[in-house]
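Loading example: each entry is read as two labelled lines plus one structure line.
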Amino acid sequence: MGEDELAVLRRALDLSGIGFTLADPRLPDSPLVYVNQSFLAMTGYTTDDVLGRNCRFLQGRDTDPGPIDKLRRAVADGRPATVELRNYRKDGTPFWNEVHIAPVRDEDGELVRYVGVQIDVTAHREEQRLRFAAQDAERRLTFLAEASPLLDASLDLRSTLDSLTHLSVPFLGDASLVYEVRHDEVHQLSTAAIDPAVEALVRELPSAYAAHAADPLVRVLRSGKAEIVSSLGPAKAAMIVPLKARGTIVGVVVFASLGSRRRYGRSELAVAEDLAHRAALALDNARLYENLGAVAQALQVGLLPQQLPLLAGVDLAARYRPAGDGSLIGGDFYDVLPRADGIVDLVIGDVTGKGARAAGLTAQVRHTLRTAARYEDSPSRVLDVVNRTLIAERTDTGRYCTVAMCRLEPNGSTRATICCAGHPLPIVIRGHGTIEHVGRPGSVLGWVPDPRLLDIEFELNPGQALVLFTDGVTEARTTGDAYGLGGLEELLRAATGEDADAIAARVDRAAAHAGERRDDVAVLVARRGGTSAG
Amino acid sequence: MGRALMLPFTVERQVSDGTARIIVRGELDMETGPRLDEEIRGVEAEGPAVLVLDLRGVSFFDSTGLQLVLDADVRAREEGRRFVVLPGDGEPLRVLELADVADRLQLEE
């Protein structure tokens, strides 16, 4: 990032409404060295109060030691972590703080900073706590975790992969191979061999083939558990070890014995797993450092909800898939905003641009939406607030955003209101193979002071699903991509009766299969409970 | 179909009688966007009364292109310049219509 980009990012961070901190782990007790305005506003402290101090001054009487311990372990291992903490403002009032931390390394791999993204989720959390008794941990949607295995390799990733395979031969095997599964195909990413004879054998292996559940590589990728197998292709024995980073399996590494007397046992496997663990972290760091670096990447984590709320009578699911090789922060976002009065707002949007600029703008738009949704009485009024905010803060380059926002009425009412601002019209799956676009086209936000924003009411009956999506889903390439809006409509007709997660997964898969996307793909599905639509 | 079949990105400038015309061909995306941005700002600096942005030969157009068009429109209004967009009937028109900006821009065929 250049100086300009940094200045813009810093200003965007100040406007974002999201607390953002940097700590220096090389100094005693890892003191804070940077905090943004939002952090100060959230905590009530001044810059002088906090700089030079460890961030634990936010803790107090009722701070749960569990998440604190999780953070401490993450820091000790140089890993990122996300927790929710009971924290205290300067005046002693408690608040719930969603804290995400991530290590930042310099070019030499030295840990130089810890970034913290902190969001006051008190209102959100209290509302949730009051209305939903049980939280279902299985419904946690870890979007980045899902996206990670799909991230393509770049030059830096390649060299890290090649280091992994080359340094493990001959110590752990006669050959070493790294694979990933992408779009139901097993892809070979890097190989190394002990001698030309083994290299010739390795070269005969397919570089890609369709994944089958019976394939040991696929089995290890799915289970996340390392295995020793007695034969694998030309190998007499092999260790298959998952590459796990931040709880995600990004691939597998295979250490193979071809013809030699090499035996694999528990101790070899332990070494292999340790190596794979280190490699996965290195790969993850390489990925974090591509293009815009860790700061923007860490911020992205704060831009999508870590977990969709559980709503009585409404089934929710979402998917997010970054564009192209996944190394750039995209501009798509979505959110679900339950209010204390039972109204639920669903939003999806797309900001112009990519990278740090887009990340800062996304943070700001999401925050403005959250705030305005609490008091404005219709989606169009909420979007009007966003429009005015974007125009008021316009600089040389405009900041534009498209949004579709749908408000669901409380107490099982089937009434819903939709407003679209320059965004593709969402689709309702009515049942029996019928679908319907809802909403009227409205203006992109951030351009003119008097945008056309129309609230349109519609019914969302039991068993029917509302599908909100971004342009990336239907991105129609004039160069032969067959999956456009027509493809989406056809796919949704066939999804009648499926639950929200199945519908979201369908859309995501179809977009992935349609080829490399230029744009992000985000989809948010809300389905009313009940089966009357069949 | 592969990328080899895509048109190479080109930006061409024609100036006559106070009207500057920028003709864009190929894929307008994150990679090529900055080249067009530079061209538009360069032309604007020469102070034409009318700036025509010809997108009829653009085969890919997304939020990068939208951003460039809207920015140029805002500057034209601020600086009292006529700004005309020729979107053609392909991707640029689809995106401008989707963003609901088509009827407030000065579009010509």
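The interface with chain A takes residues 1, 3, 5-6, 29-30, 59-60, 62-64, 66-67, 70-71, 73-74, 90-91, 94-95, 97-101, 104 of chain B (CB under 8 Å).
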